[in-house]
Specification:
- By secondary structure, the protein is of the alpha+beta class.
- It has one domain.
- The chain contains two helices and three strands.
- It has a three-stranded antiparallel β-sheet with strand order 1-2-3, with helices on one face.
- Strand 2 and strand 3 (34-37) form a beta hairpin.
- It starts with 6 loop residues before the first strand and ends in a 7-residue tail after the last helix.
Length: 68
């Protein structure tokens, strides 16, 4: 598994088992960039932004685009 594509996701206590209600924080392990999310869509969008080829410069600076 490539370290550049590794993330730590921490869900808050309000997150339910079916993930209809989800919130927490996510961190990209390579850069240390982190963000909070308030939905699964927000989490997925943030991860996609970090992994996007156009985010290469953002990854280097540790500040990927934040969808929320």
């Amino acid at each position: 598994m490539p370290y550049t594509k590794a993330f730590l996701v921490q869900f808050s206590a309000e997150t339910d088992a079916d993930l209809r209600q989800a919130a927490g924080r996510v961190e990209h392990l390579k850069t240390g960039a982190r963000s909070r999310f308030t939905s699964i869509d927000g989490l997925c969008a943030w991860i996609a932004a970090v992994l996007a080829p156009s985010a290469e410069g953002a990854e280097t600076s540790g500040k990927p685009r934040s969808p929320e």
